[in-house]
Design a protein that fits this description.
about 700 residues, alpha/beta
């Protein structure tokens, strides 16, 4: 139920109406909506109403995916009619991104003399960029200026608040439109740029070192604030695209848990040179030596990007854990950033119940804050009202990150990890907790047989076959610690020895079974002389106490929502990982913005790349929804044809000897009788020929 003090859903809906241009600040609206979602029971209808707030508004104004977009998800924007512009503008208004930027502007604005109004406002800027991205055109300011000047009509320009190109001579120049777009874009970036430093001057490395030192001494709080602003901006636009789905798909997310798969992919920088903090002293000395020799070296450096190193372009195939993931070829190095992406996936392969949309995205420096960025994505998805389910990732995340950086904050919001393990972390891993041992994400009895603990290692090294492996893996259920009750508000949970309680799964000589225990015969019996059995004098708490408390910090590292390498885990994890890798390839393809091609987005800097990433994700999600609905319609047409197929003219008007039909498709009885006679004659001749061939030769 909604707690006291939470705004009613109707108030939130009214406050988020696009026509309410003078509504409350967007930051307050977001906070109220998050409070509503956080304080409502997911099974309550009020929760679904709050979750559906944006979707209802888009439906009511015809701003969800329309039929012309379903029929052609790319070409629908090429006409650039008034309705196309109005529809895109309405969607951006519904997202409230413009109000969010207005709030940033009011925070940053200083008293001054003012000036003439801007030629291009932020809402028009975002509308134009989204339409260019939806049409898969380069996100250049020149393209955007041409779009505003030549490719929309006067009514669309009036709707966007743009001047008539014929109103004065300066607006007849395409260069002036390009410059106006560039100025508007830079003004918007200034509200969210964590690194607002020069990117268009050839400066010595000593200035870069001074700039970095000043930034670390005085501007780290501002950097954090700008990152949060960029995240909120991305959150609004990406969440808007989710609610453009039909209601039946949105409502399914409000009722069931959402599974995601997340990963990073490279996004190149328009500048090909960067420098790390550790390399700055050497670069300064090198530059001074070149200048002293009369050979100064030119080149603009962006010190707020990073190196992305890839071992080789070709991935080698091999059994997991038996060969390095990449070959030993010469590594390639690129300059840019890492785009973190979390996409929605289904429960397994081939279900296809909903489009695989991107639910959250962010940009970060390569190899910096990888786990923290992933945790932020998962938290934002939960804040948007999605019920957390499984979250799949590669070994870089759950299996490698320190729990406090990813596992603890993500699982506190309800996410359950799904991951593979590094080969050195198979079997027993870590120190355990109060006598319990950790085996591949599970807390287990210290007397677990070694053959069961090392089952995965033995299978990967070829010592056992699949049948034996799955039998040993299945036997782990006997030795797993069981929760005594649900976790408390802090995430602490009491865990019991498998031989304790009313439903023990193990018969242990160290612990007497309760008289009230069930009569189940499905128990593993540990012998008194078992070498894995702890010494009675050295028993830890898990063997002596009825239960042991596990805090979030005490839980097994990289524990999982599904049993590791079980059929259910394999179906989900392989599907989730293949889906995100396919998505990475799509985003780098020529049809979805080409993240790896910086020539399609020439504005320099981290904030510009972040905004371009968000715009491309918005266009990608819109295409995904349109393609999904088109595929659904095509499947429905195949299963439920509305009319019989149209016959060819030769079948409709004439007798067809090939099919033995009369005009209209009726059987030609004369032709069929002739064919039967011909077939019978052929059979008679074959029989005579066989009889003749069996007659013995006479001499």
């Amino acid at each position: 139920m909604i707690t006291n003090g939470t705004p009613p859903v109707g108030d939130l809906l009214e406050r988020s109406t696009p026509d309410n241009e003078t509504g409350a600040p967007s930051a307050r609206m977001l906070a109220d909506r998050k409070q509503t979602l956080a304080s409502a029971d997911p099974s309550d209808e009020l929760y679904a109403d709050a979750f559906e707030m944006l979707g209802k508004m888009l439906d009511a104004r015809g701003l969800d995916i329309q039929q012309d977009e379903v029929e052609d998800s790319v070409a629908a924007a090429r006409r650039y009619s008034f309705n196309d512009v109005k529809r895109m503008r309405g969607r951006l208004l519904a997202s409230r991104a413009d109000l969010l930027l207005d709030g940033f502007d009011s925070e940053e604005r200083r008293p001054g003399a003012g000036g003439r109004p801007a030629t291009i406002n932020r809402l028009a800027l975002l509308t134009g960029l989204c339409m260019l991205a939806l049409d898969n055109r380069p996100l250049w300011m020149r393209q955007l200026g041409s779009f505003f000047k030549n490719q929309i009509d006067d009514d669309a320009r009036e709707l966007l608040g743009l001047p008539d190109p014929n109103s004065k001579p300066s607006l007849q120049s395409k260069r002036n439109w390009e410059q106006n777009c560039r100025n508007a874009f830079q003004r918007m970036l200034g509200l969210m740029d964590p690194y607002p430093y020069s990117r268009y001057e050839n400066r010595p490395y000593s200035e870069h070192a001074q700039e970095r030192a000043e930034h670390e001494a005085h501007h780290l709080e501002r950097e954090k604030k700008m990152y949060e602003r960029l995240g909120d901006f991305a959150d609004l636009l990406v969440n808007m695209t989710f609610h453009m789905q039909p209601r039946r798909l949105r409502r399914a997310s409000a009722r069931e848990k959402v599974n995601v798969s997340f990963d990073q992919t490279f996004m190149s920088s328009p500048l090909s040179r960067t420098v790390t903090a550790s390399r700055l002293p050497a670069k300064i000395q090198e530059q001074r030596a070149l200048e002293a020799a009369g050979r100064p070296k030119a080149g603009i450096v962006d010190s707020w990007s990073g190196y992305y190193v890839r071992e080789t372009e070709d991935r080698q195939d091999g059994a997991p854990g038996t060969a390095p993931a990449y070959g030993s070829g010469r590594p390639t190095t690129k300059v840019g950033w890492q785009a973190s992406i979390a996409m929605r996936v289904d429960d397994g392969i081939g279900l296809g119940r909903h489009p695989k949309l991107i639910l959250a995205t962010a940009l970060s420096m390569p190899n910096v804050g990888v786990a923290e960025t992933a945790a932020d994505l998962l938290i934002r998805i939960a804040d948007n009202g999605h019920r957390p389910g499984l979250a799949a990732a590669d070994k870089e995340y759950w299996a490698n990150a320190i729990p406090s950086r990813l596992q603890i904050p993500a699982t506190a919001r309800g996410w359950l990890p799904s991951t593979d393990y590094r080969i050195d972390r198979l079997g027993k891993w870590g120190d355990g907790h109060r006598g319990a041992i950790f085996v591949e994400g599970k807390a287990m009895c210290p007397a677990t047989p070694k053959s069961i603990i090392d089952a995965t290692k033995d299978r990967m090294q070829g010592r056992i076959d699949d049948v034996t492996y799955h039998k040993r893996r299945g036997n782990r259920r006997y030795f797993e610690l069981r929760p005594k009750a649900k976790p408390d508000a802090r995430g602490n949970v009491n865990m019991m020895c498998p031989a304790a309680g009313k439903s023990p799964t193990v018969i242990c000589p160290l612990r007497e079974m309760l008289k009230t225990a069930s009569n189940s015969k499905d128990r593993w019996e540990i012998e008194d002389d078992d070498p894995n059995l702890p010494d009675r004098a050295l028993m830890d708490d898990i063997c002596k106490q009825h239960s042991v408390q596990f805090t979030p910090e005490d839980m097994p590292p990289a524990f999982q929502g599904l049993a590791y390498r079980s059929p259910e885990w394999h179906d989900f994890h392989s599907h989730a990982r293949n889906s995100i890798e396919s998505l990475n390839g799509s985003l780098k393809g020529t049809h979805h913005g080409n993240l790896d091609d910086h020539d399609r987005r020439r504005v320099r800097g981290f904030a510009a790349a972040y905004v371009f990433l968000v715009i491309m994700v918005v266009a990608f999600n819109m295409r995904r929804i349109a393609d999904f609905l088109e595929a659904e319609a095509e499947e429905s047409r195949r299963e439920n044809p509305q009319a019989p197929p149209v016959q060819r003219a030769r079948d409709r008007k004439y007798a067809n000897p090939y099919t033995a039909t009369l005009p209209g498709g009726a059987p030609d009885e004369v032709e069929l009788a002739r064919r039967r006679e011909k077939k019978a004659e052929g059979a008679r001749r074959k029989a005579e020929l066989r009889a003749t061939s069996r007659t013995p030769l006479r001499t």
